[in-house]
Each structure stands twice: as C-alpha cells, then as structure tokens.
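Q: what sequence does this backbone want?
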C-alpha cells in the first residue's frame, strides 16, 4: 500500500480497524492481543512506531531487524497465536523515521492469544474468553461467513489422498527447512493447517470442506460438494463451443497442476531475466492467475469456475462474495481473503506469496509478458482478463526468428558481445518502450557506433525483432526502435 494512503489511515486515528503501538525498541506486550482481535473481527491495520495520538515516533534503527524477527517468530508459535497465521511486515519511511505496517485480514477461524480469545471493539481489544455467549456468537459468525470451515464429521482420513499429504510436507519443507509439518502425522498436519476443526457449540469435529477440497479423493469431493468443477477451455477457432477442453473435477492441488498443463499446452513461453536469473514469464504470470482462480471463490455457489484461452486474451471467472464492485485498482486496494485457510496452505507449500501479492504480481508480469495491463473486476462473479496483445502464434514466430537472428548475428560477427539469447530477450524487453539508437547502444555498453549499427541493430531490424517508429524515414534523427 502506498505511503500516502497509509498516512491518511494514520491521520484518521485509532478505531475498530486501526491500532497504534510505539514499539520503539521491542514489541509491546499487547501487540498480539490486537492481532488476535483483528483476526477474530474484521481485520485491520496495525502500526508499530506510532504513538496513541498518531505521532510518528519511529523504531530505533538498531532494533528494526530484531523486532521484525520477533514478530514473525511469535506469529508462528502456537503458544502465542493459535492457530498460527502468516502475516507480512512492511517497513515504511515517514518523517525520516521507520515504522512498520501490518495488514491483518479477517480470519475464517477463531484465534487465541496466550490461550485467551480477544475480540475488537471501538475501545480496543476485549477479552471475551469467559463470556460463553460472546464466544459462541464469534464461532457462529465464522462458520456462517466462511464455508471452507464447514465440518464433515463422517469424512475419514482414508478418503484423503495420502500422496498429496506427503507431497505437501515435502513442499512445505522446501520452503522452510524446519517446517513443523515434517514430523507430524496426517491428523496433526490437518489440525495444524486448520483443516480439522471442532465446533465448541455442537461438539462436532472432523475434516473441513477446505481439507476435503485440498486433499480429498474425487469420491469424497463429489459427496461433499457435487457441483465442484473448474472448466478449462481453448476458444480461438470454434467460438460457439471450444477447440480443446479439460473438465476438472478433482482436488485443488491436482486442479492446479492440470490448469498449468493446459496453459503450457496452448500458450507459448517468454523467458525473462529477473536480476541474474532466467525465469519463465508464462509460469510466473499464470501461477498467480490459477492460484487466484482456485483459492478465492465461493464454493457453495454452483457457478463453475472457468479459464478460457481466446485469440487475444485469457479470461478467468469464479463465483464470489464481493467486498466491493467494479474494476480493482492494484495500487489502491485492500486484499480480502475469501478462503484464508486454503490460501494459507497454498502459501505454506510455495504456490502463492503473501496476502495481496497475487494481483500485484499478475499486474507486473502481465505487462512484461504481453505488453498490456490485466483487468480485475469484482462482483458476484470475479473476473480476471489477461490481454494477449501479441498473439500466441506470433510469439512462437518471434521466438523462432529470435533464435535464427541470434545465430546469424553470431556467425557474421564472432566478436559480438551479445552471445546469448538472454541478452537479446533483455534488449527486447528494454525496447518495449521506443528507444533511440544511442539509448540502446548505451544500455548494451557498446562504444563503437558503426560496429553496433552494423552487427547488432541492423540484424535485429532485418529479423523483424525491432521495428522503426518512422519506417518511411529510417535515417531520421528522431528515429526510435521498439520490439
């Protein structure tokens, strides 16, 4: 979230969804009471390094890293927050000082802090542990709002896919070497992940709908949620029906794999240097799109989730409990977890990042992948549109041409310094915005102008990889080149 927006929130003072803590050198003792209260109520913004009146006191520079580490460690300690919940700390510079902003979403579960249950009201954090009516009301509200927590007391562990539980342990351990799931049995893992719950009012306990959807065998999913389905369609020639289809009626982890396979089958890849590492833009982009489609849907609605690859765009649709309507602005939105327990498991095994990163990452990688910005529309149906300004067939042609051009360039000029396809990809990404000859030459660190024009620039133009902004006047002093 932008500093200007956070400054506006701070200037509004403390309230139901805003809390300040000074925490200049260490965490205030009641920080986690506020976290628990926010999780149990409607979520909120927690600021560290801000006094009760909204004054920016800042965190002492020597304490910044330790304070951050203490917070993360406590959030992963079930003796402090139970069940544990992953939160991200954002360091913000204000008035020349460092403060921390922690966006706490509403959780689908009831959380305890140091064994006590806290709720939020206008006056602060209220300990309701000994008030049975308030506790029962809190549980009822959570069960009613989040269908992922619905308990199926007669579902058996044997009806879950054991291979997926093993895989989840391995993936979690890859993300964090000391992950506690490594040493847990299946039931302990489900409880730790919030996928096996007990309702204190009805005394029912068992695997939740979230647990069934993530790990369940097809027969169990069909019994629990008969309409569960994700439709993957290719619709480029036969617009009335489809050119290819995958009707997916399996658990969410296997659904993720099949959707990514469908995308890999029908969309060509573009490679990109992120820092010094070569990444697949297609995988980076659609990892976010697919995860969002699977995680953030209202599962009780029979509307089938869809992923549709068209000639000039990719569209996803899923049923939704909207918390607003209209097009989402990625620079100014507050993420709301539709199914936080499912989202947390996906995060633990490395399929998603922190809350709110999906839209930001989709926005980032879509602009690089296709040269256009995605569109997110919130309503009863959540819709994501990824424009494909460069058609899939054109991408394949471009990649083949790029290889041929690179080989021809290297054969004609053995001393040329552009020796790898990554360097050409990097140049073409740089030229998505029209650049002058001198800008490109400086970017590639070529000193000899004639050598650069003859051996680098002209072959890329002849190969069709670079285009001229003034094609009728190739020698114009105002000429620029773009990919």
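A:
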């Amino acid at each position: 979230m932008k500093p200007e927006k956070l400054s506006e929130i701070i200037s509004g003072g403390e309230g139901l969804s805003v809390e300040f803590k000074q925490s200049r050198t260490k965490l205030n003792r009641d920080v986690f009471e506020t976290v628990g209260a926010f999780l149990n109520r409607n979520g909120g913004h927690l600021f560290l390094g801000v006094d009760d009146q909204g004054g920016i006191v800042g965190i002492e520079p020597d304490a910044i890293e330790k304070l951050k580490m203490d917070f993360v460690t406590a959030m992963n300690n079930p003796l402090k927050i139970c069940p544990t919940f992953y939160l991200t700390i954002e360091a913000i510079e204000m008035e020349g000082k460092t403060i921390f902003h922690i966006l706490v979403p509403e959780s689908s579960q009831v959380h305890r802090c140091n064994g006590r249950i806290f709720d939020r009201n206008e006056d602060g954090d209220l300990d309701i542990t000994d008030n049975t009516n308030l506790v029962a009301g809190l549980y009822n509200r959570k069960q009613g709002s989040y269908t992922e927590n619905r308990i199926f007391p007669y579902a058996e562990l044997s009806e879950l896919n054991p291979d997926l539980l093993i895989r989840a342990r391995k993936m979690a351990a890859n993300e964090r070497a000391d992950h506690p799931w490594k040493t847990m049995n299946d039931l302990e893992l489900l409880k730790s992940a919030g996928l096996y719950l007990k309702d204190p009012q009805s005394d029912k306990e068992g695997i939740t709908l979230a647990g069934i959807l993530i790990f369940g065998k097809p027969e169990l999913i069909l019994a629990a949620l008969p309409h569960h389905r994700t439709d993957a369609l290719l619709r480029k020639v036969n617009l009335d029906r489809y050119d290819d289809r995958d009707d997916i009626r399996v658990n969410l982890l296997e659904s993720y794999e099949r959707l990514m396979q469908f995308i890999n089958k029908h969309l060509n890849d573009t490679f990109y240097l992120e820092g010094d590492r070569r990444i697949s833009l297609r995988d980076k982009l659609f990892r976010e799109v697919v995860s969002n489609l699977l995680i953030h849907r209202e599962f009780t609605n029979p509307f089938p989730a869809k992923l549709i690859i068209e000639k000039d765009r990719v569209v996803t649709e899923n049923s939704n409990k909207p918390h607003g309507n209209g097009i989402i602005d990625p620079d100014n939105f507050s993420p709301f977890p539709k199914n936080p327990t499912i989202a947390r498991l996906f995060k633990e095994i490395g399929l998603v990042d922190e809350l709110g990163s999906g839209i930001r990452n989709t926005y980032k990688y879509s602009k690089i992948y296709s040269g256009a910005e995605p569109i997110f529309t919130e309503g009863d149906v959540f819709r994501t549109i990824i424009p494909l300004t460069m058609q899939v067939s054109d991408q394949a042609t471009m990649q083949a041409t790029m290889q041929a051009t690179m080989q021809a360039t290297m054969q004609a000029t053995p001393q040329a310094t552009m020796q790898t396809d990554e360097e050409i990809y990097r140049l073409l990404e740089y030229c998505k915005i029209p650049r002058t000859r001198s800008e490109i030459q400086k970017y590639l660190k070529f000193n000899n102008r004639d050598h650069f024009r003859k051996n680098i620039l002209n072959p890329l133009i002849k190969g069709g990889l670079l285009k001229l902004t003034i094609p009728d006047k190739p020698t114009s002093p105002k000429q620029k080149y773009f990919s």
